[in-house]
Design a protein that fits this description.
The complex is a heterohexamer, with three copies of chain A (112 residues) and three copies of chain B (458 residues).
Chain A (H helix, E strand, L loop, with lengths): L1 E7 L4 H10 L5 E9 L5 E5 L2 E5 L2 E10 L4 H12 L8 E6 L2 E4 L11
Antiparallel strand pairs in A: 1-5, 1-6, 2-5, 3-4
Chain B lengths: L1 H23 L11 H30 L6 H28 L2 E2 L3 E2 L17 H22 L6 H24 L4 H4 L8 H19 L20 H21 L7 H28 L4 H18 L5 H25 L8 H19 L2 H6 L15 H30 L7 H6 L1 H6 L18
Antiparallel strand pairs in B: 1-2
Helix pairs in contact in B: 2-3, 2-4, 2-8, 3-4, 3-5, 4-5, 4-7, 5-7, 5-14, 7-12, 7-14, 8-9, 8-10, 9-10, 9-11, 10-11, 10-12, 11-12, 12-14
The chains are: A alpha+beta (112), B mainly alpha (458).
Bound molecules: adenosine-5'-diphosphate (3 copies).
One adenosine-5'-diphosphate sits at the interface of chains E and A.
């Protein structure tokens, strides 16, 4: 099992969920995060003074998937989250040692 | 570039209007005799005007609370600026169009810059009358704000405000409230402005909401609507209560004098509002399974709008009935306008002000009682349900139809012109970011973490 | 199913009450003579009524601010609906019970639907008097809201409101304020309602809070209380200030005429409120190490409640002392009620209204000065500290004891009946989810991310 | 330990002030003759006082909204307590210093505890006059709050409030508003207090903000400022509107009688505020590329402050011009004070109140018209632009310079003394945690998750 | 060392903390997240229109523990977080390459 | 590649970002979390009643870096985040199986 962790633009959540559903992975955990990368922050104004907001809102979408599906999941995520401009975000993949469904106690890939 | 032009254009319009009067200023002041009765009337009308002024805060808090956090600063600025622009414009030209020397029953033509020292306001000082009228003009203009919330361009909104307070509203006011106005002469009754203020504002709202189009994401491709919950219910609740408070100036203040009738009017106002809220609450309880909070607020406001025309002509029981019917109407109208007409009205402004403005005006033709009008020192006319036949009802309907037609035509022209020039709609990207950022480069609540919204749009 | 029944039952009660008057409506209107003095009194009482009306918003903002975000929409709707239901019910029956033809000193029995054209209100138009009384009835009813916040069923709350404004409150009002009332006849003094409004509301609050039980999680198994912080301090601050503003209608408006005494009353009111807040602040500073914000607000309100009975009878210095003592009392009462009585009162309604309503009523028997009462055109009576002996003190105590007994008994019966029928308490799951969801299917602040609360309940 | 001392010291001061009057109490009451005119004046002044009182809520909502969430409870308590402390202190000593028996044109010396039964207030009851003056004193004191927000120690703030309402403000009030005051005798005109209230408050704010130092993180080592956005724009919007509403008591109420002139005054007030907001909005639109929300609010307030001195002396057009200039001034002043002076004024209090208080006072010397003053029943004087030459302008400038000097000296002494004793500044750690925690151990919004701020300080 | 990451119902936080404390692992990091899985969202109402909230609030509880304790920790978490209905959440286990206590600089299992 | 995950005091964010920038790793993801560890919670007051806030706000700073840089990154983070008192937080290091830049589709260490 692997965890696919995508840092996406908030407005791309809907297409991303769509793609994951299609692949049979509706289970995800989403966190509101702030990101900083190549993307420049935005400039806001407060009473005539400009200030940079360096950290931009992103969503972290985490889905634990079977190892053999990682490629497809990653590709689907890229498809759904890409706009082509700086700030589209990143995807990181991690190994998962184990997974358990709390309700049933099932472990391993049954739990996903 | 284009933006600079818009700004300059607006500034130019404003300054042009502003420059002329500077010359005429010296003579523009009224001299009024002092007497105890006049003073009492002045105090009363001034306090009423202050309460009506404060309704602005009610309007923009209601709007802000029932829409999303990312547009709330824009709602606040709209609310402040429509009063400020409206006050200047109405003082300069609107008041003259409304109460100046009558031309053909259609419009006033003298007294720009409120230069009407000699005119008679029933013993009331000119400026007390003017301030009260300014507050009313502001209310008429601001009704639009809620209906076009979260998507109208700020520049377009400012210009629309200027046109409504400068022309669209004063003409209707002249027809119905000014001696010589053609509906006034025909005996149409609209005591405190169900038609003059609320129907005018409500029809502008309908036309505006329709021409600006729905908020991005409001309707699905199959035309079914999505719910877009408001971000701050206490804010909307306070807005509602401030509006209700303001109505104690709006309706009884429209006597323009401190007579005992103001007590009667305040009571009809109270009962109609209460009945509106109670009926709306029970109706939503039955229809939706639980009592709906924001619709109950709308119910109170619907009752208030509906009793505005008839508050001095109807009995307490009639007032409660008129308000109760308004509570029904508003719930169904909200559904109808969204689902059947496909018009996106985030705060229910059309249902509250247009629908119930019309209902309230018509209700005068049904519920008026000559004995009560007489006791209150206003027109002694009876409606259909109290032995007056359909005569008054006819006059009321004539008024409604004429006003709706006038406002529909002029406001369509207005929004069409705006669309072709400065533009009226913030584009999808701008709406996604929110009007606070797009229009003002500001975050309303920078210290609070926004939630992850359903549509992925925060 | 059961819910539908409740809705229908409520609707039926409402409609039943509503239907009858429709017939009597035609004659239900007052005719009042016009004169300048009457007009001035009318203006004054109407504005006072509007200010008291606006206190509703103060009450529900205070309640909402001092409780959790997940229950705030419910608090708002309770606040709007108790006024609306209260206004209709008080108009229909409460006013008759309070000021109708006296029966045995206990209750009024005529004038339903405010059908009292002939009655004498000291030259004040009937409807000005009625509106002022409606606003008072609303205040009495809404005190309950804060004490039972975050757990009472909305349907039960609505019914309780109807019973308080329709019966419990008017009977007390008759005793003390109506000519012929048995406490009125015995000379009990309660100028603006420390007892009539605040003790009545406060005892209802005590009984209600006790019978509804504490909020889930408020007390540990060992009966020690947990702190449940309020979610919005500015909201509570605004609520406090709106209430204080309203008191400038509540107390000086209770003259029911525009005499110079209203200035004196407004000043005693101001000093008592100020002293209450200052004393509460310093006391918490000493006891808790830092000045406590929400208790200081409560201190101001305690001072206001306490001066309400005596505002026209006591000197400025006495007013400050009465208010200062109220500031002490409220701090200790909050601790006592929570820790000793084990009653959960989220906003301190019992401490503010019941405890200080009683204190204020008793204080008249201590601080009243005949010379001042005379100057203000009210009863010229002296209290214990100003040479009047214990006579007035006795009358005041008699009044307090009787009213507490009446309210305790009737409100216990009311909540008992509610418990056995519609139920009064939202269950633990419902409280965890929050009353906004459970009772109204609504989120008050959908755009803001909630924090992780200590108890794992958001 | 030290904290306990501070608390005790404050309590001692308070109790000391409080104890004395208790003895004098009995005779401290006024007896006023009853008449219809008096009653009308009383009603009017009382309502005006209530509106001015409510401005407190406007002030603390504006302050709270334009500063950060972690300091908002502190802002609320400051706002409530400065009124409460101010009311008690002004009643006890301030009123005597202001309107007591004149000593050398400099200060009043009799009538402590408002013990002035015999004095003549133009037929107005003493306590109506006193309450109106208390509300003004509260306004003068609370202006400081916004300028020193987010860093002043609460104890120091309380003591400062006591000194401003007890001495600094009443002395200026005596100079300008009391018969016998040396500026009054020289004919300086400040109708409703551009100088007496706003310049006094604004200069205190300047000195306070300068001596307390900027908020931690406000300026970089190179003295360039960082933006620290306010946390709640709707809160600031409501504050602005409440202030504006209050101004309808502040300016027309300063007639102290119910004459038709109040209508004229209310209109000049409205036009100045509107012009101020409109000009500030367009100016920021041009300068910053988008219309700035909070500066537009400041523009309205600047217009209000500026018209306060001249509201009864100038024409409508002049009022709009005065307000418009104020709208310009405030925008540039905010930039100047922050970037050139290096003074940190979170809400723009100095720019709004000091700068425009001065501008408004000077403007009387430019725009006053004798004919209007006469019509309004006030001083008939013409300014430079209306044929009056520079005489009045000179008087106005004399007044401004004297008042600025007096306030600068006394408030510097005050803050210096505070710095050496209780301390005035919350240390960096305390500011990082927020004053709500540091000073009151309270979270204002415990149910909402804070955002990650730029500077790592939440 | 392993990281045990549990996605739980917010109202189960207290018992979960209780169990972890008993096992000697008071150190945790908690994040407010939104989850989507088998559990259906809830339906809210806005002015008469129903809408589904698809993402439900969950808490992510992360505790880094010694590898030999993973079994016990997971079992304790299941015990504390289970209600038996859909939406009880999941537990994922990850390898931790290293841990450091910032205050002292201690690394490895001393840091936990 | 490794993920370095630091749980820090919110007020140390600025120096931490500074250090990361210096090392050439400006890309981070930040999450607002609540922590519980050795550090005692703080006591707040509500109307005279004290209550403990057991969970204190922390920021989770996640940076995916090249394996060879982990040591330097961790040391830099310690330097920037340390105050020396309890509650300074912890750093955890995890293996990253893969990384992808959504905008370009680049994978592996090019994506960082
Ligand atoms: N090395 C990293 N470690 C953790 N998160 C990162 C890293 N680099 C980027 N991110 C996350 O990815 C988001 C997008 O990165 P950015 O460099 O702006 O995108 P891109 O270069 O692909 O346009 C950032 O906001 C941040 O949340
Ligand atoms: N594959 C997954 N990857 C990441 N998080 C998941 C995954 N599946 C479920 N979750 C998380 O677990 C929570 C509970 O899942 P759900 O399927 O509703 O529970 P259950 O089936 O055990 O009743 C979800 O809200 C989500 O946060
Ligand atoms: N075992 C753990 N697993 C996950 N997070 C932890 C663990 N131990 C500590 N933390 C996180 O680190 C933060 C600081 O821990 P703490 O023990 O207070 O620090 P220290 O002992 O280094 O002063 C906690 O608030 C929590 O967020």
């Amino acid at each position: 099992m692997k965890k696919v962790e995508a840092l996406i633009r908030p407005e791309r959540l809907e297409p991303v969920m769509e793609e994951l559903r299609k692949l049979g992975y509706p289970g995800v955990t989403i966190t509101e995060v702030k990101g900083h990368g190549k993307q420049k922050g935005v400039t806001h104004m407060w009473r005539g003074a400009e200030y940079r907001v360096e950290f931009l809102p992103k969503l972290k979408v985490e889905a634990v998937v079977l190892s053999e599906d990682v490629g497809r999941v990653v590709n689907a995520l890229i498809r759904a989250a890409r706009t082509g401009s700086i700030g589209d975000g990143k995807i990181f993949v991690y190994d998962v040692a184990d997974a358990v469904r709390i309700r049933t106690g099932e472990a391993g890939f049954n739990a996903i | 570039m284009r933006r600079t032009l818009v700004v300059l254009a607006l500034a130019a319009v404003f300054l042009a209007l502003f420059a002329t009067p500077a010359l005429a200023g010296e003579e523009g002041e009224a001299r009024t005799p002092e007497s105890s009765v006049t003073s009492l009337d002045t105090v009363w009308v001034l306090i009423a005007a202050a309460l009506v002024f404060f309704m602005q805060a009610g309007f923009f808090f209601l709007e802000g609370g029932l829409t999303r956090a990312k547009n709330v600063s824009n709602a606040m600025l709209k609310g402040v600026m429509d009063f400020c622009l409206g006050a200047l414009v109405f003082w300069m030209i609107g008041f003259a169009f409304m109460f100046g020397f009558d031309r053909g029953g259609f419009v006033g033509t003298s007294g720009f810059l409120a230069n009407m020292a000699g005119a008679d306001w029933n013993g009331l000082p000119l400026y007390a009358f003017l301030l009260f009228q300014i507050a009313f003009a502001g209310a008429a203009a601001t009704i639009l704000a809620g209906a076009v919330a979260e998507r109208i361009k700020f520049s377009a909104y400012c210009i629309a405000t200027v046109c409504i307070t400068g022309l669209i509203y004063p003409v209707v006011g002249h027809w119905i409230w000014a001696e010589g106005g053609w509906l006034y002469d025909r005996g149409m009754l609209d005591f405190a402005g169900s038609t003059v203020v609320h129907t005018v504002g409500g029809i502008c709202a309908l036309v505006g909401a329709w021409m600006v189009g729905p908020r991005t994401g409001k309707f699905n491709p199959d035309r079914s609507p999505n719910a877009i919950p408001g971000h701050n219910i206490p804010m909307a609740a306070l807005g509602t209560f401030i509006l209700w408070l303001g109505w104690y100036g709006f309706n009884p203040g429209s006597t323009l004098k401190a007579s005992p009738a103001i007590a009667t009017i305040a009571m009809t106002t109270t009962l109609a509002a209460s009945a509106g809220a109670v009926v709306a609450m029970f109706l939503t309880w039955i229809r939706y399974g639980k009592p709906d909070v924001s619709m109950s607020f709308n119910g109170a406001l619907a009752g208030l709008v509906a009793i505005t025309a008839g508050c001095a002509y109807v009995s307490m029981v009639s007032a409660a009935v008129i308000g109760g019917v308004a509570g029904l109407l508003v719930v169904f109208a909200v559904e109808f306008i969204e689902r059947r007409l496909g018009v996106d009205d985030p705060v229910g402004a059309i249902s509250v002000h247009a629908v119930n403005g019309i209902w309230g005006t018509v209700a005068v033709g049904l519920f008026a009682q000559a004995s009560l009008g007489e006791a209150n020192g206003v027109a002694a006319v009876s409606g259909l349900f109290f032995g007056g036949g359909v005569a008054q009802l006819g006059r009321q309907l004539l008024g409604v139809v004429s006003v709706v037609a006038w406002v529909a035509v002029t406001s369509t022209a207005l929004f069409f012109a705006l669309k072709k020039t400065v533009g009226i709609r913030v584009d999808d990207e701008g709406q996604k970011a929110g009007l606070d950022i797009t229009e003002h480069n500001l975050e309303a609540y920078p210290d609070f973490q926004p939630t992850i919204s359903e549509k992925g749009v925060i």
